[in-house]
Design a protein that fits this description.
The complex is a heterodimer.
Chain A lengths: L4 H4 L16 H14 L5 H10 L1 H9 L16 H4 L6 H14 L3 H13 L4 H4 L2 H13 L5 H9 L2 H6 L13 H11 L7 H10 L3 E4 L4 E4 L9 E3 L2 E3 L3 H10 L6 H14 L6 H10 L10 H10 L1 H5 L8 H12 L5 H5 L2 H4 L21 H17 L2 H9 L6 H10 L6 H13 L5 H13 L2 H4 L2
Antiparallel strand pairs in A: 1-2, 3-4
Helix pairs in contact in A: 2-3, 2-4, 3-4, 4-17, 6-19, 7-9, 10-14, 12-13, 15-16, 16-17, 19-22, 22-26, 23-24, 23-26, 24-26
Chain B lengths: L2 H20 L26 E7 L9 E2 L22 E2 L7 E2 L4 H8 L3 E8 L7 H10 L10 H8 L9 E4 L15 E3 L17 H12 L7 H23 L10 H12 L7 E6 L9 H24 L6 E6 L20 E6 L6 E4 L19 E2 H11 L6 H5 L13
Parallel strand pairs in B: 1-8, 1-9, 5-11, 5-12, 6-7, 6-8
Antiparallel strand pairs in B: 2-4, 3-4, 5-10, 9-10
Helix pairs in contact in B: 1-6, 5-6, 7-8
The chains are: A mainly alpha, B alpha/beta.
Chain lengths: 458, 419
């Protein structure tokens, strides 16, 4: 049956739990929303199983992964980033990542890796070295739900980032402001939270890193570092690159601005683009504020997932192309088509490893325009056409009755309910397609469901 | 369905019927000029067309319109990047500024009186963030007063007409400038803008039945802003792909060149769809390192884009109806950094091109002496960006006025760059 790979390793037989009946509709809806936001969706069968265990237990499960670099048993695919020789370059890397998203048993880890890729947005079109892009991808995965302070320091000396924002040519006597500005504006503080003088002196503090392209490693060259006194956010000293993160996180004159900034970015990504101030505030406070202390991303996400606004609120957003494609691959078992589907990502508006600029993907309503909407319809039609005949047949033969392929397809995609508008449109299509044969009609239903507002909003 | 939607739908059906009756099935996308000898069916044949060319990333204005006459351009701040006076294309009437050597078409246009150079355009209290500054340029609001773009607000506030669509962006991204509160432009990629499962000319075909069902799913008006954006995009997608198919497709997929994007933009502007505004973007101007060669190559592309614009405007027989302008979110620092590049700066030049232009230099070259720069070491703007937009709104685009779109701005000084 499609879409059961997540549970395959965890609850293979779905044994009935004695004394526990079917989950309530509310619990089922909450769990469905959680999987669409914190993962890449799930089939209704999986959702029922998780809802039976309960929302709280599902949150624990999603958050309960060990960092990828500490896991003893790992999916062999995850070693791709450090060992595999690539021939297809960008497309192969994109296909690998989509496959990983579609098949992982740690969906939140992959979702966070995607978040960090958009947050510390780095594009291969300038880095021009997919090996370094994959190393960066692994850095994001290894630190996906870890310490934001540590991640900031690691990204500051990440080779792909040093190339992308010109850190590698930032030297004493001729500072290059590119990384310093974006670090404060886009990675940690937000706009108008620092001055041009802060940018200039932060750039001086960051001088000294170079990238060795024969080893693909970053090296700090003391002779290239500016050892003068810098003044950043009111703090004066002979700062080294790692000091910039500590100053920005601990010493901002307006308080823990960086916690609010990260909370807003994460709430916009995981929740919806206009997050409630109370949600952002609770998230920011749960990140941790001790000087030099950890900034615990996992705590912040747990806070978000437990908020009533997240569980039951009206706010929604558009599924990103990565969520759409990986989720559909998962539901329809299209892992073998990952390369072909990865090639569609650019038209959908999310070319993985090539964000449009250092600001990352705007998300929310920014995903929707006439071009990307057509690409979404076309993706739906193509994915429906790609599904193996046996997968399509399972949607037809599961149950009987004229509407049953609709219900079975909804269940595979994890769509719990349809608006009367969508239901009416699909019923009319089904009525018009009676002569087309069950395989073709089912693929038509799948097309409409994958392109539907219900599936494209979360 | 609003009156405008109904008119658009009716207009669309007319166009579709005309296409069908003319038996037009051959590729037309790359054909300049009108489809059926009707310049623009929705207007009086003198519709004003505006093509916007965004140089994204922050174009180095000092190496575009080069102040070779200012000794400070040659002091120790820009020694690796400055162009010598003997390299610059000098222009009539100025011993201060000339053009980058790769801008020969623009230079020729200037000498012909068909190019206006507006120098030192920006806004007060400059924002050196790409995103902050881009937002100001695209919403025409230095105080970030509007969420909607300035051309989107023009769409919102102009009277409905029979256009199928009034504003388009070439590519798969819709710039903020074209996003209105109630009306937005369409994003149209320059290739592959077709239904994957086939055209839907025959309503009984499986593809047509699916497309109709897809459209019906989106025929709702939710109050949620994001949900509404998705459904609007779905409806626009179907309308746009049908509209584009009505004016034809390229015989061979165009390359991803700026010239091809200009061709697509001019094809749409000169079609009978009622398009008044087209938006094209060229990226990679964020030259923090090793600027000189890549920047020169980008300017060569800009010059080629202007040449394509002129060629296609002339081919319509009414070149006086077409206007092109360029902008960037900011210029760059006077002094180069240690990487052979330049960091974020402030004011920069704009080009306005067309037969309707009153050619010449407008504004003034910002001074470069350190004492004449702002506290951050950046140039002082000479012209406010809304002074340029006001001219475009009141003397070019037909519809909402500068007051409608910009609000009541005190001290507005429209720049008289049109005949």
């Amino acid at each position: 049956m499609p879409g059961e790979n997540l549970l395959a390793g965890l609850l293979p037989q779905l044994p009935p739990i004695p004394g526990v009946g079917a989950p309530s509709a509310v619990e089922l809806r909450r769990v469905a929303r959680l999987f669409s936001r914190a993962g890449f969706g799930a089939s209704k069968t999986e959702l029922i199983a998780w809802a039976t265990l309960g929302y709280a237990a599902t949150v624990d499960h999603l958050l309960g992964f060990l960092p990828a670099n500490l896991r003893l048993l790992d999916s062999p695919d995850l070693t791709f980033a450090s060992t595999r020789q690539m021939t297809g370059q960008l497309n192969e890397a994109q296909a690998w990542w989509l496959q990983t998203m579609a098949t992982t048993t740690h969906p939140l880890e992959e979702k966070l890796t995607l978040f960090w890729h958009g947050h510390f947005a780095t594009a291969n079109n300038k880095v021009d070295n997919i090996r370094l892009m994959l190393d960066q991808n692994r850095l994001f995965r290894d630190n996906a739900a870890g310490d934001f302070r540590k991640l900031c320091k690691l990204v500051t000396s990440d080779p792909a980032m040093l190339i992308w924002l010109d850190g590698q040519s930032n030297r004493v006597g001729g500072p290059n402001e590119n990384y310093a500005r974006e670090f404060m504006e886009l990675f940690t503080l937000g706009r108008a939270r620092f001055s041009q003088n802060d940018v200039r002196d932060a750039a001086r503090a960051l001088t000294g890193w170079v990238v060795n392209l024969s080893t693909n490693k970053a090296n700090f060259v003391p002779a290239y570092h500016d050892n003068g006194v810098k003044v950043i956010l009111g703090q004066a000293g002979n700062f080294a690159p790692a000091d910039l993160t500590d100053i920005v996180l601990d010493r901002h004159p307006e308080g823990p601005v960086s916690s609010w900034f990260l909370a807003t970015r994460m709430a916009s990504f995981f929740h919806h683009p206009d997050p409630e101030p109370a949600v952002v505030s609770a998230m920011a406070q749960s990140l941790g504020a001790a000087a030099k202390g950890p900034r615990n991303v996992k705590n912040m996400l747990r806070t978000l997932f437990q908020r009533p606004e997240f569980m039951d609120g009206a706010g929604q957003t558009i599924r990103s192309p990565a969520e759409l494609v990986a989720g559909t691959m998962r539901a329809l078992q299209l892992q073998a088509q990952a390369g072909q589907l990865a090639a569609k990502m650019r038209g959908l508006g999310q070319d993985l490893f090539n964000p449009p600029n250092v600001g990352g993907w705007p998300g929310g309503a920014g995903w929707a325009n006439s071009a990307t909407a057509l690409a979404r319809y076309n993706f739906a039609a193509q994915a429906a056409a790609m599904a193996r005949p046996d997968v399509v047949k399972s949607l037809v033969s599961l149950v009987t009755g004229p509407q049953e392929p609709v219900h079975a397809s909804m269940d595979a995609l994890g769509i719990l309910e349809l608006s009367s508008q969508t239901r009416g449109a699909i019923e009319k299509y089904v009525a018009s397609a009676q002569g087309d044969g069950s395989d073709k009609v089912t693929r038509g239903i799948l097309t409409l469901l994958i392109a539907s507002p219900e599936y494209n909003l979360r | 369905m609003s009156v405008g939607d109904e008119l658009s739908r009716r207009r669309f059906l007319q166009v579709s019927a005309a296409v069908a009756s003319a038996g037009v099935t051959s590729p037309l996308w790359l054909r300049a000029g009108s489809l059926f000898g009707v310049e623009d069916a929705h207007a009086d044949g003198n519709a004003r067309k505006l093509l916007v060319l965004l140089l994204a990333g922050g174009n180095d204005g000092l190496n575009t319109v080069v102040p070779y006459g200012l000794p400070e351009y040659y002091d120790n701040r820009r020694q690796g990047l400055a162009y010598g006076a003997n390299e610059v294309l000098t222009i009539s009437g100025s011993k201060t500024v000339g053009l980058h050597p790769n801008l020969s078409t623009i230079h020729h246009g200037f000498e012909d009186g068909k190019v206006a150079i507006i120098q030192g355009v920006g806004y007060d209290r400059p924002d050196l963030s790409h995103f902050g500054s881009m937002d100001i340029w695209q919403t025409a609001s230095p105080s970030h007063k509007y969420l909607a773009g300035w051309l989107g607000r023009w769409l919102d506030r102009s009277p409905a007409d029979s256009s199928v669509v009034k504003a388009v962006a070439i590519g798969d991204y819709l710039p903020q400038a074209l996003v209105g509160d109630t009306n937005s432009g369409w994003a149209i990629p320059f290739s592959g803008f077709t239904f994957w499962d086939g055209a839907d000319a025959n309503p009984a075909s499986a593809a047509a039945r699916l497309h109709s069902a897809f459209l019906k799913c989106a025929d709702a008006h939710p109050t949620d802003r994001v949900a509404s954006a998705l459904l609007t995009a779905d409806r626009n997608a179907v309308a746009a792909v049908r509209a584009v198919s009505s004016i034809g497709h390229p015989e061979a997929p165009p390359t991803n060149s700026l010239t091809d994007q200009m061709t697509a933009a001019m094809s749409l502007l000169s079609s009978n769809l009622g398009v008044d505004i087209a938006f094209v973007t060229l990226g990679s101007f964020d030259d923090h390192a090793s600027e000189r060669g890549p920047h020169a190559q980008l300017l060569k592309q800009v010059d080629g884009a202007v040449a394509q614009f002129q060629k296609m405007a002339t081919a319509t027989g009414k070149p006086q109806n077409y206007l092109l302008y360029t902008f960037s979110e900011f210029g760059r620092r006077v002094e180069e950094n240690g990487s052979g590049g330049t960091d974020h700066g402030t004011a920069g030049p704009m080009f306005v091109v067309g037969d309707a232009v009153k050619g010449g230099l407008y504004g003034a070259q910002p001074l470069l002496a350190k004492s004449k720069l702002d506290a951050d070491g950046n140039m002082i703007r000479q012209v406010e960006l809304r002074d340029v937009y006001a001219t475009l709104l009141d003397n070019w685009l037909v519809g909402a006025t500068s007051t409608d779109v910009l609000g009541s701005v005190s001290g507005l000084h429209p720049v008289p760059f049109l005949k």
